[in-house]
Amino acid sequence: DEMRDAMHPGVSESEMWAALHAGNIKRGGEWIETRILSSGPRTNPWFQECGPRIMQEGDMMAFDTDLVGTHGYCCDISRSWIVGDVPPSDEQRTLYKVAYEHVMTNIDLIQPGMSFAEMTAKAHRLPEAYRALRYGVLAHGVGLCDEYPSVRYPEDVEEHGYSGHFEPGMTLCVEAYIGAVGGREGVKLEEQVVVTETGCETLSVYPYEQALLA
After folding, report:
1. How far apart, in whole angstroms, are the C-alpha atoms of residue 33 and residue 135?
2. Predicted TM-score of the model (pTM)
3. pLDDT by residue (tens digit) across 84-118?
4. Are 116 and 165 in contact (CB under 8 A)?
5. Which residues sit opposite 203 in a β-bridge?
6. Is 25 left (phi over 0), alpha (psi -120 to 50) or beta?
7. Separation CA 184–CA 36 (nearest Å)
């Protein structure tokens, strides 16, 4: 809520990040591992830290919490929002819908006993235009910080993949970054889940953007 309240045209990326940090500390959290928040053209490619850029109306603003919160546990989700009270563009909607489908499809896929290789083989396949800038993993473990396992995209298995399978009680972050090479903006979404005896249970209750899914 602090970030939503702070987000409007004329505010810097760093001010937005400060709102997240303050909200974490206020709730008894500890610290934040990164500063990954960007807006407008700085959302493509991903992994740019927040800076002095002043956000403009209609910008896409995307962030990854990467915070160590209450009781020392990592809260690791990503969301992408539109700055200001304006409707999103068709391109922004397209990016967001692909990211959302990617994350939701892959969450629904995970089952206890499934191998990492099987998830890689069955996971939602990104459209060709977005594969070059894909995120580093389909999903990763999380506990006190980012942890085992790292489940890779098909393109990355040979170099970085390893064997293993999902077990009940594993906490995972399922991710998507959607942006085209040379595109103006990108969208980052990430959801935190726990593997149960029958599938996955979502741990975050923060909603997605209906205006971008319309």
Report:
1. 18
2. 0.97
3. 999 999 999 999 999 999 999 999 999 999 999 99
4. yes
5. none
6. alpha
7. 18
